[in-house]
Amino acid sequence: MVDDTGVRDRETRTADTLAMLTTQAIDVWVATASAEGAPYLVPVSLAWVDDRAVIAVAKSSLTATNLMTSREARLAVGPTRDVVMIDAVLEDAVDVAADEALGAAYIAQADWDPRHDTGYVFLVLRPERIQAWREANEIPGRTLMRDGDWLTEMEA
Amino acid sequence: MVDDTGVRDRETRTADTLAMLTTQAIDVWVATASAEGAPYLVPVSLAWVDDRAVIAVAKSSLTATNLMTSREARLAVGPTRDVVMIDAVLEDAVDVAADEALGAAYIAQADWDPRHDTGYVFLVLRPERIQAWREANEIPGRTLMRDGDWLTEMEA
Lengths: 156, 156
What we know:
The structure is a homodimer.
Chain A: H1 10-21, E1 27-33, E2 39-45, E3 47-49, E4 52-58, H2 62-70, E5 72-77, E6 83-95, H3 100-109, E7 120-133, E8 143-146, E9 149-150
Antiparallel strand pairs in A: 1-2, 1-5, 3-4, 4-7, 5-6, 6-7, 7-8, 8-9
């Protein structure tokens, strides 16, 4: 029998998730794969801008190369026992100097400024599914976004 | 100019890394990819046994399926700013009830016991490369194991 003490309802999980994603100077684990299926994983700074995960990486990095090819990433934010997992697709890749509003939004949350780093790009990742759980008892009800839409309390 | 205040030497990083990997009830991020190149990522409990990362997962899980096919994983242990990154290959997959010594070693470190869970396997992952860093100033010197061998202070 699963102990459901402290299991958060969807409203609370969604609020906690948004609070986590907008935390100052927080990092995101970015998992990608090469065209040959080699897994890659790296932690980078996160900015959460208009329901998108924005990261800044070197154009030549494995993360950028993989994403430009497959357009798919799986992201994790938070410690392993209070996690937000995001399946996302690459929506846009812009030179760090090219989009002033995006650059301003990025540095408002991240604790470094990549805008003058030659060869860096902002990768804008659009979430398709978001899940959040702390321990095994929170596995039921972990899905907060499906097909790009936040679920409401009404939906299963 | 990079600020090298507090940058750990290789001996210290190796000691810190082994201490991290053998921590009680610690989790590991496991990044894998499907045959089609879809990235997957999940946190699971870690046991560090004879220089191998041992995890217990359902045989039917994406992590097991991906690893059985590609045999490659990229692992991360620790928070994003004190990280141990491991590129590993699948060395062995054993039914959780089949190897008593491995089961005992696993539960001595992990905080759950999968040995009676039908359909669970221990996946034994052999590290090929291990890197550890805290902040950007620790990127130089981050490689502690290469081609499966721990580097000594003498090696570049």
